[in-house]
Amino acid sequence: MQTKIDKGILLDTIRPLYVLEGKWTGYGKGNYPTLNEFSYKEETCFETVANEPYILMTQKTWLKGRGQSEFIHIETGIISAVDMGVLRFYTCHMNGRIEIMTGKYLGLTKESIAFVSDLVKNEINLKQALSSSRVFKFNPNVFEYELCLSTIDVIKKTKHASARLLKAF
Q1: Does a structural domain hold residue 1?
Q2: What is the pTM of this model?
Q3: Do 89 and 100 touch, CB atoms closer than 8 A?
Q4: 132-168 pLDDT tens trace
Q5: 3-state secondary structure string, 75-119?
Q6: What is the CATH number of the domain that holds 46?
Q7: Handedness of CA 80, 115, 75, 125 (dihedral sign)
Q8: Does a structural domain hold residue 100?
């Protein structure tokens, strides 16, 4: 039988992420042993849920290149406080991949989080991801992240993308 965690503890755990609420825009770079290096434009929005230990996230990216932008990715997610100091990040990708990651704050300032995948499920026809990890770094004006990925083609977890976004509003 699972013990119910006090909602106040969960709210205290999620509260440092409230600084992310709003729209963030910026640029990132991607690379992977099976891909050519690429640059992208990104828009990520975070929304808090009043008096609940959740934050909603929507991420959209566009490939940058030669005067044009091509839409390449959309991802939605929920970051949830599940225990004192422990977060869970549930994501759904437009290509049919879902992930569940567990994260903890790094350091006492609670301005960065390391997430590691617990579960990755892929659409049957999708190149199979095996695991992932993300590190978020943030303050009221800047949000940065790094994403590492392991696939059936590249077993060792390898950096895939990183971005630096600024608060838009």
Answers
A1: no
A2: 0.92
A3: yes
A4: 999 999 999 999 999 999 999 999 999 999 999 999 9
A5: EEEEEEEEECCEEEEEEEECCCCEEEEEEEECCCCCCEEEEEEEE
A6: 2.40.128.20
A7: negative
A8: yes
